[in-house]
Amino acid sequence: MKQYLDLVEDVLQNGKRREKTLQGSGDLSVFVRTKTYPVSEDAFPVLTTKKINFHNVVVELLWFLSGESRWDYLHKYNVKIWDVWGVKEVAEKYGLEEGDFGPIYGPNWIHWPDVKRDGELNQIKRLVEELRKNPDSRRHKVVAYNPASVDDVMVAPCHGDFKCYVDLETQELHLNMVQRSADVPIGVPYNISSYSLLLVMLAQVTGYKPGNFIHTTQDTHIYLDQVDPIKEQLTREPRRLPKLKINKDVKDIFEFKPDDFELEGYDPHPFIKIPVGI
């Protein structure tokens, strides 16, 4: 996807150098960039200039939609990408048990504290209902970042705040996700595919066609120890996007399973090992 490679080049060329960050390594950073990715089942947005583990993308998204805070769902499907933040010595610093990440993406999407009703709000359920009943509403918004709890978790939500828009003329559903912190080499490729997949799922269960995923990244950065490996990716030509096969029988956003999705014709360049900012 040329849009992604353009973003990488932008940060490398225009990024302001910071010698130290909370993650330890310095970085190059730009502020607020927006890229648009057309989404369809015939050309699904996923990086081809390096291999992306689509199974991890699917399982992580379904974990978010489950509302769970523990790593049990991830481990059930052999996904270990969150393990480094859930080990005992890290969790205990935040008063959590091993494998519990606290109020992050899924818990905030599905169990948002609702003081007025003395309970909780399922934001995803409400979003689906409103897209069906009131497609022209301006309130099709979901948030993951809760200022009241960001100091209680190891990983404050970097993404997860998104808004949907229905084009009544074309019957297309569009999704804009605003990401407060964007690790361009590691996180952003997953975010592109994850929210494109969420868009396809939402479109299917609400009766619309998937439109565009518009990705807005605020603090958009490349860590200094990621610069050399990400430059290798810039030497590679993007390949044809794969098709997405999805189980058409699923009409409830919470009923999808990992084997309901498959990429057909995914032929990426080889995987590139890039350090993760922790």
TrEMBL record:
Where is (6R)-5,10-methylene-5,6,7,8-tetrahydrofolate bound in this sequence? 53, 183
What top-level class of enzyme does the UniProt entry assign? transferase
Organism superkingdom: Bacteria
Gene Ontology terms: biological process? dTMP biosynthetic process; dTTP biosynthetic process; methylation
- UniProt pathway: Pyrimidine metabolism; dTTP biosynthesis
Q: Where is this gene product found?
A: Cytoplasm
State any single GO MF term: thymidylate synthase activity
Assigned protein family: Belongs to the thymidylate synthase family. Bacterial-type ThyA subfamily.
Q: Which HAMAP family match?
A: Thymidy_synth_bact
Designated name of the protein:
Thymidylate synthase
Q: Which organism is it from?
A: Candidatus Colwellbacteria bacterium CG10_big_fil_rev_8_21_14_0_10_42_22
| Lineage of origin | Bacteria, Candidatus Colwelliibacteriota
